[in-house]
Design goal:
Helices cover about 55% and strands about 15% of the residues. The strands form 2 sheets. Strands 3-2-1-4-5-6 form a 6-stranded parallel beta sheet. The protein has a 3-stranded mixed beta sheet with strand order 7-8-9. α8 crosses α13. β1 (about 5), α1 and β2 form a beta-alpha-beta unit. With about 290 residues, it is an alpha/beta fold. It starts with a strand and ends with a helix.
Length: about 290
């Protein structure tokens, strides 16, 4: 089985490592400030590395699961970065949600160092990750994808190859832009119902009986009507980052995104006024407070 390096053991990354450790892999890990999931992985037999370079030196496949493009670039570049320690023929996989332009730039640098870079953003939750049931949106060199697909199949129930490098991140950003726009529209709808003296549950019953019904509507209803914020376990600060990346991707393409502006304004303002760690469904409270 493969020697795998994993960088970024947060909630999702820690769950993915736990899943991989059910297989017969040699796992080398590198964490960040919070050692919770890092120490759990070490307790199950993983080896801790001192740097990203050391992770790469020990690995045939290097996986990253980090929050931003800047964080990925910080681990990839420099004297102690992944590229500096890359084995010849190694495959590097970015599971985070990154800017496609950053992904393509890193791909060229990894290729120059003798490896291959794939982007593979994720769908579903950490609980799915533990059981190997993620949706994985991978793109990049097809031969490299085929090489690592058996490992991706351990992590994902649905593993897609989506074409040239950066396509996975592009599709993920479009997906998240659409989802967060719908979520914010539903959150405002519940807040407007309050303002107009209409029962939230009755509003939902009418809207969900027609073509507007969607899973995202149900997630927001989970908090707005049922009081459970974790049906959509995605933090406002992360949603703001993803919609911001979508807007930046549009700008880089020379176009002005109209529809993303309202969602980005609401999410950014909520984040900047102390709601960044709230779940997206709790944007109902943000709009309710704004309407007072």
């Amino acid at each position: 089985m493969s020697a795998i390096g994993f960088i970024g053991l947060g909630l999702m990354g820690g769950a993915m490592v736990e899943c991989l450790q059910k297989g017969d892999h040699q796992i080398t890990v590198l964490g960040n400030r919070d050692r919770t999931y890092l120490d759990q992985a070490i307790g199950r037999g993983a080896t801790e590395a001192a740097s990203a370079k050391a992770v790469a030196e020990a690995s045939d496949i290097v996986m990253l699961c980090m929050g931003t493009s800047d964080q990925v670039e910080g681990r990839m570049r420099g004297a102690d970065g992944v590229i500096a320690g890359l084995r010849d023929g190694a495959v590097v996989i970015d599971f985070g949600t990154s800017l496609p332009a950053s992904t393509r730039a890193l791909g060229a640098e990894v290729a120059e160092a003798g490896g291959t870079y794939l982007d593979a953003p994720l769908g579903r939750t950490p609980s799915h990750a533990v059981d190997g049931l993620l949706n994985i949106m991978c793109s990049g060199d097809k031969a490299a994808f085929d090489k690592v697909k058996p490992v991706l199949d351990e992590l994902g129930e649905n593993v897609f190859h989506l074409g040239e490098l950066g396509s996975g991140h592009t599709i993920k950003l479009i997906n998240n832009f659409f989802g967060m726009t719908v979520a914010n529209a539903m959150a405002e709808a519940f807040a407007m119902a309050d303002k107009q003296g209409v029962d939230r549950a009755q509003l939902y019953d009418v809207m969900s009986a027609g073509p507007l019904h969607s899973g995202m509507m149900d997630f927001v209803k989970g908090y707005g009507v049922d009081g459970d914020p974790n049906q959509l376990a995605f933090a406002v600060k992360n949603a703001a980052k993803d919609v911001g990346y979508y807007a930046k991707m549009a700008q880089d393409a020379g176009v002005d995104s109209i529809m993303s502006k309202s969602a980005l304004e609401a999410l950014s303002d909520a984040r900047d006024t102390g709601r960044g760690n709230d779940m997206v469904g709790q944007m109902v409270d943000y709009f309710s407070d704004r309407f007072k």
